Amino acid sequence: ELLVESGGGLVQAGGSLRLSCRVSGRFFSSKTMDWYRQAPGSQRELVARITDAGTTTYADPVKGRFTISRDNAARTVFLQMNNLKPEDTGIYYCYSLDAPWPWGQGTQVTVSS
Predict the structure, then answer these.
(1) pLDDT at 26
(2) CA torsion 38→40→43→47, rounded to 10°?
């Protein structure tokens, strides 16, 4: 597998989780990396993005609560999620529009109220 997500789980509202995505594809350091999520019955949506230069952007619902980062030496992208809300529940995926890598299995995040 090229993209392997981990770190999801069940957490109470207000809690935190740190997701990881290990990438085995080539030229990871030159790729813009994204985190997406898909809630039950909803479309997959972009949550956060980090460029190869480290520039980050966030979807409005997660601004101020989520932080995306990367470790190029470890070929890993992270998503620190704080002050989680029930509406953050879903399957979280990492992905890159810059690379021909297939979607991974994702990691389930469930936030209870």
Answers:
(1) 82
(2) -30
